[in-house]
Specification:
- The complex is a heterodimer of chains A (701) and B (586).
- Chain A has 701 residues and is an alpha/beta fold.
- Among the domains of chain A are: 11-59 and 181-282 and 397-440, ABC transporter type 1, transmembrane domain (ABC transporter transmembrane region fold, Up-down Bundle); 65-173, no CATH class; 464-545 and 604-699, Rossmann fold (3-Layer(aba) Sandwich).
- Helices cover 64% and strands 9% of the residues of chain A.
- Chain A has helices spanning 11-21, 26-58, 65-87, 89-94, 101-113, 117-123, 136-147, 155-163, 167-173, 179-226, 231-236, 239-281, 283-330, 332-337, 341-393, 399-440, 503-510, 533-539, 554-559, 567-577, 580-585, 602-616, 632-645, 681-687, 690-696, and strands at 127-129, 132-134, 464-471, 480-487, 492-496, 518-523, 526-527, 540-543, 552-553, 593-594, 620-624, 650-654, 666-671, 674-679.
- In chain A, a hairpin with a 2-residue loop joins β6 and β7 (526-527).
- The longest helix of chain A has 53 residues, at 341-393.
- Chain B has 19 helices and 12 strands.
- In chain B, β9, α15 and β10 (529-533) form a beta-alpha-beta unit.
- The chains are: A alpha/beta (701), B alpha/beta (586).
Chain lengths: 701, 586
């Protein structure tokens, strides 16, 4: 985990590799990106459309005051006309020369209002406004209501009074929402929203296939690579490290690369899109929204940087703590019996305290990001409202624009933090990718495609010659200095010597696990350099000191990759090795699972590996300390069984316990990379040299 | 789950109270914000409102936002403090507990599991405290409060919000119920993938020797496919999440607008503006309500995981170490003696006794050796001396005092125990050899040098870069098995104990080094008593007393020569290693 947080050394290079490897999914990736892009575009268009809907709705709230004026004008005109013609025709002449027309009208209206009910009924005859007929009754009612209104009447009261207006007039001045338009706009918006979700889902599904397919490919690449690497690689690299690449690093890439890519596409589009749309909608409001968010952005970026630092530190301390705990827990019996608890606790507390500090800080800093972002949102909202209100009052914009901007502020503030997040994710993807590619690019075993010669397993005689071999695992340290020996077909060869003499190394060279630096090994006169590794491996049965079995049944483990092995064959071999009885006691016999190490002891495991080696039945046999985990009595039994099997086979036996190899046809005594003595057991003892010393040290006081 | 929080201190509850108060305050403030929003909306809509009024409302709204921000930041501060402190305490408690464990408890839990319990599981709980606590208080309060704000205002609009909430909750719970069992499978499949790859790496020589590369890749491929398929199901399910959330929120917004519009058309002129501002309020409160339900469902995601972790931690804390320290610290009459009186041993859950009725006494300066085939109980027997296990029946005495009566430190001060697998700590050669505490001063560099020399490690240590200060990597990966064994023997020597216990500690040494080492030891620790477990006859044939074990029973006691004459099993073991003639000559 803490590795993921590390910054990669060559970010750009790794990214290029990552995407080159994604080539297989190129088209899917492009389609997904297009979906993400379209969804983002739709998201930026939506608020603008929503503004349209809002405008249609808000057009339907305010009463039509102009219409009201028109009605009263028409009404009074009609009434006046009637008054002059019916009641007082002279009036017109007397006041005809008046200068101020409005004055006149007002006076007249006041005058009309003071007329008696009877008179009003006569002069307020039916009128027609915009094809609506307003009856005398309605007009009188209107007058009644209108007369209670003066300049000080509050808006709310005004609206209440309007509700009491006769239907004919109310129908005219009542706010009319354009329902047709509303329907049209709402449907368009609905389609935009729906498409937005569908595109988003399509993009998510495609990216799931891409990301997981990619992870699957990387994992299987690593698995292939494991079997193509020279053994040398595993000498200097821990299994845990490779495993962490298979799981942690690949997961980091698989899960994050698709998220990060689409998040980047979506949010960059949203960000740019919302800026463009804001300016398209209204530039003053756009500037307001951007300006009010900028300080917040600066602040949160700063926080992100600082918290990042503490996160890295936290992962590091967590790693330290993990390491310490692992050490103390696994060395528990030493810690306890050496009274090391206090020392361990002291160290633990030291790391624990440090972890606490960065834990608290990173937790705090990352925790306040969200509230700060929402504050920016709120702040932007108010600014947009205030500036918007100002503009609405001056009739620069409609209310819908404000509503649109309320959403734009959010659309605009969210992407930046998401982009920042995606970039840090990409960074951890980069770090993980680097580790994966580093492994995938390791130098592989030498190419063998031009090797044509082949030794046939059934016709091999079994003469092996070692010629002046020189070899070292690293250039500066020679392990095998000058090894020369020749082995005759059917011989049992023992290689003995103190630890570090190079016994196992010789076997490694014979099996072509490592390439010889100088000299040559010839099998039936053919140099192993001219044989493929798999050809050589075909010729050898090999049983190693480590009791390697995989998780599966006893049968699977014994058959391994051999073909056409029947249970009878298995039982025969098991009997020879002496584990037939043990297997029969297992719950499912050959079907019993190995791997859960509780049921099978390491000695029994070793016997299983010996049986597995025998099933392969190749012309050569190598036993590399194959019986070191078995107690000496069992070893003797196995040894006898093997002697029977190795009749006629050239076999190499490496052993710690010299008792096992006393009957060898040839004992090669190695010390510091050379053969110092060779011969049979008795001969060597008589020589009273290195072997004798080694042998007698068993009985030293 | 609740029980784990009993580990909180009194002061922590005050912190939680402060957090709760602040969270509720911030919810209150957060919910005021939409009110000001609608106020502003109304003002903007109404013609003769003044700029001043808008500024006042805007100012209030920003004030609310600022106060809420301050509250949340303070909450963040306190909850991160609480969480970090709690996790520190829990880690320490678990660590101390594990240190008090005997081998039996460690085996029961398994080391790797104890490690994850100390780190990962604590982190889960920490997360719950850091974020979950806020969420736990905030989301229900928010959800209910926001609901009360809208519920009286308009049935129709409430209905739209309600439908949104239901859809969100249902989809969320569905997604969680699809995904969370699969997460468990993923966990086990990842373990399996790790296992298969690990097998391949560890057995790379065997795989290569058997030309079984394709076979292994097929095995890996199978798990890889399984894992990828489940990953795909999960990711595809999660891919639904965002689009559905967006869909619901968008359509809720749109729905509120459309229904709002219809209500506006129907209502009186007087109610139209109110209706309109209601509509705007609903669209923002509606989102709040949906968010708080979203958060609530999130808790369903965090809680089960945290509960599992809490249980795993409690298991460790509840485990009573089977081995309890006594309090004897005084002087003893005897020195350097070990005595077993009718000792039998079986593992707590086992039916069969591993050791049956063992009695012997090792006097000061004597070497007592134990031999027997694999599984005969040799290691178990000597593990009873430093109380890695306790005898089931009978008694074990060190210096004439029952080991159960000793203060454990006091007992360990008398013993130099060398385990079967040599264990190295990260640090220098010096740190490793001078490790621990024996009630005296830390051994000096000279003493460490001397100990390493006796343990036949001088040559290789002095060849290392920076010799005695040379760094030993984690797990001792930069030294060989034989070197580790020699260093751990030196570690015991540097302790200067009365009693040495060698649990098959010479197995990785070749005969010559083994012989030399033992000769040197003999010279330097004349007074010290040694208990030696070994496989090789050569290692033990010179012991003062050899105890032959077979299936947990003592089948022979005596010297090499005596046993050759009168113990068949011993003779068999010896003959499997050396010839008759060699045995006689030795």
């Amino acid at each position: 985990m803490h590795r993921n947080q590390e910054k990669s050394k060559d970010f750009v290079g790794t990214m290029i590799k990552l995407f080159k490897n994604l080539d297989h999914w190129r088209y899917l990736l492009i389609i997904a990106v297009l979906f993400a892009f379209s969804a983002a575009i739709l998201s930026t268009i939506a608020p603008n459309r929503l503004a349209g809907v809002t405008d249609v709705i808000s057009a339907g709230i305010k009463p039509n005051t102009k219409k009201l004026e028109k009605i009263s004008k028409t009404m009074y005109h009609n009434a006046l006309d009637n008054y002059f013609t019916v009641i007082n025709p002279q009036y017109n002449n007397t006041n005809n020369n008046s200068n101020s027309a409005t004055d006149n009208t007002e006076k007249l209206i006041n005058y009309l209002n003071k007329l008696t009910e009877q008179e009003k009924r006569i002069i307020f005859t039916e009128i027609e406004v915009d094809n609506v007929i307003i009856s005398t009754e309605d007009q009188l009612k209107y007058l009644e209501i209108i007369n209670t209104i003066d300049k000080d009447t509050v808006i709310d009261d005004l609206l209440v009074k309007m509700d009491d207006l006769p239907d004919s007039i109310k129908g005219l001045i009542e706010p009319k929402m354009n329902t047709q338009e509303l329907k049209r706009k709402a449907i368009v918006l609905g389609i935009i929203y729906l498409l937005n979700s569908i595109f988003g889902y399509a993009e998510g599904i495609i990216m799931a296939y891409v990301g997981i397919g990619y992870a699957r490919k990387l994992r299987s690449d690593i698995s292939h690579k494991i079997n193509k690497l020279p053994l040398r690689y595993f000498d200097s690299h821990e299994a845990g490290d490779i495993l962490s690449r298979v799981t942690n690093d690949v997961d980091t890439i698989g899960i994050n690369i698709s998220d990060a890519v689409t998040s980047l596409v979506t949010n960059v589009t949203l960000f740019l899109g919302s800026i463009i749309m804001m300016f398209v909608t209204n530039w003053i409001m756009a500037l307001t929204a951007i300006a009010s968010s900028i300080i917040g952005f600066a602040l949160s970026f700063m926080l992100l940087r600082i918290s990042q630092k503490y996160f890295v530190q936290r992962q590091k301390e967590l790693g330290n703590l993990n390491g310490h705990i692992e050490e103390i827990y696994s060395g528990h019996s030493v810690v306890k019996s050496y009274n090391g608890e206090e020392e361990a606790l002291k160290e633990f507390n030291k790391i624990n305290d440090r972890l606490y500090e960065c834990n608290r800080k990173s937790q705090f800093l990352s925790g306040i990001m969200q509230p700060i972002m929402s504050f920016i949102g709120n702040f932007g909202y108010v600014m947009v409202c205030v500036v918007g209100a100002l503009l609405v009052m001056n009739n620069y914009i409609t209310f819908g624009v404000i509503v649109a901007f309320m959403i734009y502020v959010r659309l605009f503030t969210n992407p930046l933090s998401r982009i920042a997040q995606a970039l840090t994710t990409m960074q951890s993807v980069g770090a993980a990718g680097e580790r994966v590619f580093e492994f995938l690019e390791e130098v592989e075993l030498s190419d063998e495609s031009n090797i044509k010669s082949k030794l046939d397993r059934d016709n091999v005689k079994g003469n092996i010659e070692f010629k002046n071999i020189k070899f070292g695992y690293s250039k500066d340290k020679t392990i095998i200095k000058n090894f020369t020996a020749s082995v005759k077909s059917g011989d049992k060869i023992a290689i003995v010597g103190p630890t570090g003499a190079g016994k196992t190394t010789m076997v490694n060279l014979l099996m072509k696990f490592y390439e010889i630096d100088e000299g040559d090994i010839l099998i039936d006169g053919v140099s192993i350099k001219d044989l493929t590794r798999s050809n050589i491996h075909e010729l050898f049965d090999m049983v190693l000191q480590d009791t390697w079995l995989f998780e599966g049944s006893v049968r699977e483990n014994l058959v391994f990759n051999n073909k056409g092995i029947t249970d009878d064959d298995l039982w025969k071999v098991c009997k020879n090795v002496g584990i037939d009885h043990f297997i029969k006691t297992l719950p499912k016999g050959l079907g019993a699972s190995v791997g859960d190490s509780n049921t099978i002891s390491s000695g029994q495991k070793q016997l299983l590996t010996i049986a597995r080696g025998m099933i392969e039945d190749a012309p050569f046999l190598i036993l590399d300390e194959a019986t070191s985990n078995v107690d000496t009595r069992t070893e003797e039994l196995v040894q006898k069984a093997m002697d029977k099997l190795t009749v006629g086979k050239t076999s190499f036996i490496i052993a710690h316990r010299l008792s096992t190899i006393k009957n060898a046809d040839l004992i090669l005594v190695m010390d510091e990379g050379n053969i110092v003595e060779q011969g049979k057991h008795e001969e060597l003892l008589k020589k009273n040299g290195f072997y004798a010393k080694l042998y007698n040290s068993q009985f030293q006081k | 789950m609740v029980r784990i929080f009993k580990n909180l201190e009194k002061r922590d509850f005050w912190i939680i109270l402060v957090i709760a108060t602040l969270v509720i305050t911030s919810v209150f403030l957060d919910l005021r914000i939409p009110e000001y929003m609608s106020e502003i909306t109304r003002l903007v809509q109404t013609e003769n409102s003044t700029m001043n009024e808008i500024l006042t409302s805007g100012g209030h709204m920003i004030l609310c936002a600022v106060l809420s921000l301050i509250c949340t930041i303070t909450v963040g501060f306190f909850s991160s403090l609480l969480a970090a402190k709690f996790s520190r305490t829990m880690r320490r408690k678990i660590f101390e507990k594990v240190e008090s464990f005997g081998i039996a408890e460690i085996k029961k839990f398994k080391t790797s599991s104890l490690i994850t319990r100390t780190t990962n599981d604590v982190t889960q709980i920490e997360m719950l405290l850091a974020m979950g606590l806020q969420l736990l208080i905030k989301s229900p309060v928010m959800a209910i409060w926001a609901l009360t704000k809208i519920i009286g205002k308009s049935t129709e609009l409430s209905l739209v919000t309600g439908v949104g909430v239901i859809i969100i909750v249902v989809t969320n719970l569905t997604i969680i119920s699809i995904v969370s069992p699969r997460f468990k499978i993923i966990q086990s499949l990842t373990d399996k993938l790790n296992g298969v790859a690990r097998e391949n790496i560890l057995g790379v020589r065997v795989v290569s020797a058997f030309n079984a590369e394709k076979f292994m890749m097929k095995r890996f491929g199978k798990v890889n496919d399984e894992l990828s398929d489940i990953h795909l199901t999960i990711t595809k399910t999660f891919a639904l999440f965002d689009p559905i959330m967006n869909f619901v929120m968008h359509f809720q917004h749109l729905g509120i607008y459309i229904i709002g519009a219809m209500l506006i058309i129907k209502s009186n002129m007087m109610d139209k503006i109110t209706m309109f501002s209601n509509m705007v309020v609903f669209s923002s409160y509606g989102i709040q309500v949906i968010f708080s339900f979203l958060m609530l469902t999130m808790i369903f995601m965090i809680l089960p995981r945290a509960r599992v972790s809490a249980n795993r931690i409690n298991e460790v804390l509840d485990e009573e170490p089977s081995i309890k320290s006594g309090d004897f610290k005084g002087k003893t009459n005897e020195k350097g003696t070990v005595e077993f009186r009718n000792v039998s041993f079986k593992y707590p859950d086992a039916d069969e006794y591993l050791l049956k009725n063992i009695s012997f006494k090792a006097e000061k300066g004597e070497t007592v050796a134990f031999i027997g085939s694999t599984g005969s109980g040799k290691s178990t027997l000597i593990n009873l001396v430093p109380r890695l296990y306790d005898a089931t029946l009978g008694e074990v005495f060190v210096d004439g005092v029952n080991v159960k009566d000793y203060d454990l430190h006091e007992l360990n001060n008398r013993i130099g125990y060398i385990a079967q697998t040599a264990f190295m700590f990260t640090g220098s050669v010096y740190d490793n050899v001078s490790y621990g505490d024996n009630g005296k001063e830390k051994p000096s560099l000279d003493k460490v040098k001397e100990a390493i020399k006796i343990a036949q490690g001088k040559d290789f240590v002095e060849k290392m870069d920076k010799d005695y200060k040379a760094h030993i990597a984690r797990g001792g990966t930069n030294v060989s098995g034989g070197q580790k064994q020699r260093l751990s023997i030196a570690r015991a020597i540097a302790r200067d104990p009365e009693i040495y216990i060698f649990d098959d500690s010479f197995s990785a040494l070749d005969y010559q080094t083994d012989a030399k080492l033992r000769a040197e030891l003999k010279k330097h620790m004349k007074d010290a008593t040694s208990l030696i477990v070994a496989q090789r006859i050569g290692t033990i044939m010179n012991a003062d007393k050899i105890i032959v074990l077979d299936k947990g029973e003592c089948v022979g006691v005596g010297t090499h020569q005596e046993l050759l004459k009168n113990c068949d099993i011993y003779k068999e073991i010896a003959l499997s290693q050396l010839s008759e003639e060699e045995l006689q000559n030795a």
